[in-house]
Amino acid sequence: MLGALVRPEGASGPELDVRVHPPARVRLGTYQRSYIARLGKCLAGQFPALCHALGPELFDDFAREYLRAHPSTSHSLYALGRRFPAWLEAQRPDRDAAAAQREAWIDFMVDLADYEWRLFELFDGPGPEREREREPTADCPDAELALQPHLVLAEHRFPVAWYYHEVRAGRRPSVPRREPSASVLLRRDYATSTFPVTALHLRFLTCVRERGSVNAGLVGLAEVLGRPLAEIEAAWAAQREGVRRPWIEAGFFTRARPRTRR
């Protein structure tokens, strides 16, 4: 029964004749169609902006093919769309072409699916709500600032965050032009937010995450850019009211845990 529901195209022939009484086959067909349709609606709920971009009918076609390739294997539908962005990338007809020769609208679909899944996963995943005591204030020294571990750093080839929020606001945006975008995805008080940042900001925040603190991140950024550390530190000091305070108030940072001596 499970096999017939999950892979209906394989539920035919002599085995079906033996296992399913003929009058029940009509009901089995109904269950097969409704099962895939309900999973498709669940997938559309996880990727609402992509559904808008493709249109419901084309999105349903993609959803059916994806569910045939990756049927649900869990009692929970939470992870249903986990492999959807990678599946879209793998199925693109121009996947063997050079990057400059690939279809831009497919790049947009893949990027949009990636952004939506990251946001969905962040919303239902662990968050910082139970660690209020570690929230820093604006006067917290840089040496004590570490990147909030549940924060997501995202980089895409299109302004997919803008497109997603336009769709969620009830508007009907057109597919945007290719334009690299960087954003920070953050959950706070059980609500997700997206913050646009520059490519340089994203590189700095990546260094902070990799090195464990803002001070170490400044050293890492100086190494990546090949610039003197004093120059990088001066630029960051000039941002104390530019981005530092808003980032702290938004929840980008937490107080770094003290290192234990061995």
TrEMBL record:
It comes from the Bacteria. Residues 22-88 form the Putative DNA-binding domain. Pfam families: DUF2063. This is Putative DNA-binding domain-containing protein. It comes from Plesiocystis pacifica SIR-1.
